[in-house]
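Posting here for the record, re: ribavirin triphosphate.
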Amino acid sequence: MTQRTLVLLKPDAVRRGLIGEVIGRIERKAGWTISALELRSLDQDTLEAHYGEHKGKPFYEPLVAFMSSGPIVALVVEGERVIEGVRQLAGPTDPIAAAPGSIRGDFGTIVRENLIHASDSEESAERELKLFFPGLV
Ligand code: RTP
Ligand code: MG
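Prediction output follows.
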């Protein structure tokens, strides 16, 4: 099943010089393709829309502050079961619980600063791709 997913390299990944490391892991996965890629800063409206499901939770405000603390890299990745696949490469949300070999397990520090976002379902992917890449066909 060919899918598309939205991946964000969070400000910690950019600051720490891990763009190439993380994108390399995605690129090396056979059969996956990067079809859009952009370095940008996120405004409050985009962040509110993107993380709307977490509004009201205790970690929401610090999360939004962190996500606007520097540029991020947004990319569209296409390929076989790529939604589940990138989540697997990323590992669990909490880097301490993430196994070595996963992106978060290898490089993550605290739960908020976990380097990468990846859409968690087909519905999320569709919504997030429209938000970040409205011109995508
Ligand atoms: P993401 O949405 O960024 O891909 O991460 P996720 O699905 O693994 O985790 P989610 O539950 O959607 O949480 C979104 C992001 O919020 C930060 N977070 N901080 N307790 C905390 O301090 C806490 N919990 C979550 C993380 O940056 C997480 O990726
Ligand atoms: Mg999430």
